[in-house]
Amino acid sequence: MQTSPSRATRTFMDYGSISQAMDGICGLYERKLKELNPAIRDITYDVADLYNFIDGLADMSALVYDHSIQAYLPYDRQWIKQRTFQHLKKLAH
């Protein structure tokens, strides 16, 4: 991910699964919310808020290892948004 146009803000994170990565992305957003609203104990948000956070980043993409071809496949922020939605839906049930 890259938080601003400056390449110096580029950060790489490594997760053991897609599910863990989606948890990580939600966690990034939740930490940002707490940072912006330190006086609020229980912060809630909906998926549209999370999408706005993802869209507000200069860049966000994922490299997912595919064992069948033994290579990493790139995915864009639209894919990440779809996967975070599926992940959150699963957690809600």
Any descriptors?
93 residues, mainly alpha, two-stranded antiparallel sheet, 3 helices, 2 strands, 11% strand, EHR_sf, Enhancer of rudimentary homolog, ERH
What's the SSE blueprint?
Blueprint: H1 18-36, H2 47-56, E1 62-66, E2 71-75, H3 77-92
Antiparallel strand pairs: 1-2
Model description:
- This is Enhancer of rudimentary homolog.
- It comes from Citrus sinensis.
- The protein has 93 residues and is mainly alpha-helical.
- It has a single domain (13-92), classed as Enhancer of rudimentary (ERH-like fold, 2-Layer Sandwich), CATH 3.30.2260.
- Helix content is 48%, strand content 11%.
- It has helices at 18-36, 47-56, 77-92; strands at 62-66, 71-75.
- The chain has a two-stranded antiparallel ribbon with strand order 1-2.
- The longest helix has 19 residues, at 18-36.
- The radius of gyration is 14 Å and the shape is globular.
- The termini are far apart.
- The relative contact order is 0.17.
| Sequence stretches where pLDDT stays below 50 over 5 or more residues | none
The H-and-E topology, N to C, reads as HHEEH
Shape field: globular
Share of helix among residues? Answer: 40-55%
Largest β-sheet summary: 2 strands, antiparallel
Biggest sheet: strand arrangement: 1-2
- Count the E strands: 2
**CATH homology group:** Enhancer of rudimentary
CATH topology grouping: ERH-like fold
What average pLDDT do the residues reach? 95
